Amino acid sequence: MDPQHALCPNLDCSARGQGGQGTIRVHSQKERRDRCTGCGRTFAATRGTPCFRLQSPAGLVLVVLSLLSWGCPVQAVVHPFALDERTVAAWLQRAGQHCQQVHRHLVQQGQVDLQHVQADELWVKLVGQRVWQAMAMATPSRLWLGGVISPQRDKPLITTLVQQVRACARSLAILVCVDGLASYVTAFLRVFRQPVRTGRRGRPHLVVEPGLLIGQVVKRYAQRHVTSTSQRVVRGTGQAIERVLEATGTGTSIHTAYIERLNATFRSHLAPLVRRGRAIAHLGATLEAGMWLVGTSYNLIWLHDRLRVEAPGAGGRRWREQTPAMAAGLTDHAWTLRDLLHYRVPLPAWAAPKQRGRPPKQVQPPLMRRAA
What we know:
- By secondary structure, the chain is an alpha+beta fold.
- It contains ten helices and 13 strands.
- The strands form four sheets. A six-stranded mixed β-sheet has the order 6-5-4-7-10-11, sandwiched between helices.
- A hairpin with a 4-residue loop joins strand 1 (24-28) and strand 2.
- Helix 1 (58-69) crosses helix 3, helix 3 crosses helix 8 and helix 4 crosses helix 5 (182-191).
- The longest helix is centred in the first third of the chain and has 22 residues, at 85-106.
């Protein structure tokens, strides 16, 4: 691992959170420890990665997580590698938390031009219970914007998902296509508001973004089968929605086909999401960790056939394949799983501690008496 990408974890170091500044040097190749020249402290080279303080080889952890991200059940990983299920679950939990931090650092920074967003939810069967997994994606770049897991399909679930969508958006003037759940309309109208400051005292008035367009696909069921569908314009006009769809090349009418295809991708790459199987998860935390691992891998690692662009002068190749993160302008190359797991999320920069309490009392020296 390159020490130039390492970050000093010392809270009192002035070089904390500053990567690539040449302040990190190799301290011991055998023990795989680095040293910060700013504070002089040493730390493990795997600090800030899922492999920190793991006794197993890093190559084995990489292979196991790669199999899990491609739909291999935990039971099928345990026996070939002679591992314990709790060990594999702990590795998945570490990787899921790390991928969630990477996703927040790269995607949820308000730098993505969303244009057209689709959101949907699906139910997942766990051992003894059933939970709902809601996800959203930017349709032009196929970028996965995040997901939320909750036992209930209610307004807090949808509101948390919409907040993740806003955290990714560069502009709030976007088109949103969802299903007939009424909570989507309420959540988008509440979250996609901006304060109007008039200079007066008090809380400013919140106004919904004028360019926000919302369309719904209402499905009617009979005996658990879809019998008919209808499109509904909730906010905006039909002509404005058609212009956005034509500009992004994502259809001619209101639909949720792209997010439904993404749901199918997650079901094929995450074993607990299989509709009928024996590898269902026991805990919601395991499902959430797998969701972040698969979602981040989908954005940064996996190449998408529909995102390729013409590259006539790129080494004789006609097409240049892209990942959703490349199409969204978040990175310029396709990552590997090793790059993802070894990526260190920058820490907050060092700040001088705030002086608390009363200032120390200045003691004046006593006056010298004159000699009689």
